[in-house]
Amino acid sequence: MIFGNNKLDMNLIEETVKKNKVPVLVQYEPFKELIKMESNDSISKQVKELNELIKEKNMIEKQLLDLQAKKPKLMAKIIYMSNEVNENKNINAEQELDRLKQEMEDINNNIDMIFEKLEDMPMLIKEKNLNLLRETVKHSYERINKGESNLSDVNDKITKLRKELDELRINKEKEEERVNSTYQFIHAILGHKDMEKLDSNFLK
C-alpha cells in the first residue's frame, strides 16, 4: 500500500469527517487502542479536553437528578406548612413556609440553568470530538506515509541483501564444484589408500 501523497488535503479530510457518523472517540475502543501506539501532543491535549467536557456533562446531569429528587419532598413540606398557616392559623409556620418557597424557587432556577447548559453540551462535545478526529486522521496519514517511506527503505535493503545472498550462493556452489572436481581428480589418480594418507596430512 503506497500512499505517496505527502501533502495532505485538509479540505478532503474535512468533508470526509463531516459526512460520516462519528462515535465519541474517547469512548471508542479502537481509538483507545490506536492512541496507545500513535499519538502526539495535540491529540493528547484534545483527548484530555474532550474527557473533561464529558465529565462535566455527567456531573451536571447528576446535579439535575439530585435537584429534581428534592422537589417532591420539598413540595410536600410546602403543602403541609401552607395548611398550617391557612387552616390552623399557625403564625410560626409562616416564616418556615417562606423559607421553603424560596428554596423551591432556587431549585427551579438552578434546574433552568442546568437545562440551558445541557442544551449546549451535545454540540460542544460533537465539535470537540470532530476536532479530535480531524487531528487523528491528519496524524494517522502522516504516520502512514512515514511508515510507507520507511518500508520502502527496508524493502530496498532486503532486495540488496537478497542479491548479495544470491551472489554468495553462486560463489559457494562454484567453490564446492571446484573442490569436488579437484578432489575427485586426485582420488582417481592416486587411489583411495594414498588419498587417505594425504588427506590426514593436508586437509584442515
From TrEMBL:
Chain segments annotated as coiled-coil in the UniProt record: 43-117, 144-178
What keyword terms does UniProt attach to this protein?
A: Coiled coil
Going by the entry's taxonomy, the superkingdom of the source organism is recorded as Bacteria
Stated name of the protein: Uncharacterized protein
